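Task: sequence design from structure.
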């Protein structure tokens, strides 16, 4: 991301549109990780939940179903395009569950109701703050005493084959990317578990645990497809979303097409049983107010 682009601009621009367009495949690809998040959070029916960086609403809708009619979910995001998809989906998919209030808000500074939420959850939505200590202190205030924060974030890039494999194919086709500062907002902001622990402790959290999670992700909407189709779908997924898409952000259509063809060819060699599976490495983080 260019230095002058704020997170709000980034997630309301092309990136937000791409995430909104790919909502169905994102939720399918991340499904094994979503299971881990919900098992770890162990939400209780009727206990209010705040979903941070809710994106297109998958976790908020699932939380609404777990909570049932007497619960309450608030889901916050800075991205207008993603919230529009989330609201549309919730109208159809969260019927009978807890009501969901989607709000366009910066979770770092938004004045959430104090001490009302039993859980704050996030699937990859808390790594993008300018001031992480201030942001987590703000989220802590929204929790009831004894309430829990549970989130997923990425371990280092090098441990995530679903990113390193296509990245290695694309790198020779584009100019050398600028290294991103490890302490700036971005997907690998919390790659180092000591950083997570330090930030959460400084924000006032107690009983902090950081557990490594490894899962294979089936990329794209490739279940049951022929090998070529599965490889194409998986290539589109990694090139539209996440760190590899950032390599192509300023490239013209010809470079993008060469990248897509090269990644699809690599994935076709790896496809098995109609799908492309590569490893993902995350942290499951839990902390108490
Ligand atoms: C990697 S996406 C994850 C979205 C969603 N949780 C999911 O798993 O599909 C990160 C999300 O965090 C949101 N975000 C980034 N900075 C934010 C902030 N300061 N406050 C609220 N949301 C933020 C983005 O708009 C984006 O929807």
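Answer:
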């Amino acid at each position: 991301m260019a230095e002058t682009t704020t997170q709000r601009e980034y997630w309301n621009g092309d990136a937000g549109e791409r995430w909104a367009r790919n909502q169905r495949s994102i939720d399918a690809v991340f499904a094994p990780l979503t299971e881990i998040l919900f098992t770890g959070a162990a939400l209780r029916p009727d206990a209010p939940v705040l979903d941070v960086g809710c994106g297109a609403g998958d976790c908020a809708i699932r939380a609404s179903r777990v909570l049932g009619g007497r619960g309450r979910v608030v889901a916050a995001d800075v991205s207008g395009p993603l919230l529009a998809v989330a609201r549309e989906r919730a109208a159809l998919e969260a019927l009978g569950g807890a009501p969901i209030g989607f709000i366009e808000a910066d979770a770092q500074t938004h004045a959430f109701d104090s001490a009302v939420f039993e859980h704050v959850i996030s699937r990859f939505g808390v790594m993008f703050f300018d001031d992480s200590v201030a942001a987590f202190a703000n989220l802590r205030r929204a929790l009831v005493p004894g309430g829990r924060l549970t989130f997923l974030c990425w371990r280092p890039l090098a441990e995530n084959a679903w990113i390193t494999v296509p990245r290695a194919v694309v790198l020779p086709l584009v100019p050398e990317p600028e290294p991103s500062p490890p302490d700036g907002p971005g997907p690998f902001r919390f790659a180092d578990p000591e950083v997570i622990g330090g930030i959460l402790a400084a924000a006032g959290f107690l009983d902090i645990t950081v557990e490594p999670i490894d899962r294979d992700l089936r990329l794209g909407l490739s279940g049951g497809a022929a090998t070529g189709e599965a490889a194409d779908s998986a290539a589109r997924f990694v090139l539209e979303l996440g760190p590899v898409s950032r390599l192509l952000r300023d490239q013209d259509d010809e470079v993008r097409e060469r990248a897509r063809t090269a990644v699809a060819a690599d994935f076709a060699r790896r496809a098995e049983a109609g799908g492309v599976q590569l490893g993902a490495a995350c942290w499951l983080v839990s902390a108490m107010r």
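Residues 7, 11, 26, 53-56, 58, 76-79, 82, 106-108, 123-125, 128-129 surround S-adenosylmethionine (CB under 6 Å).
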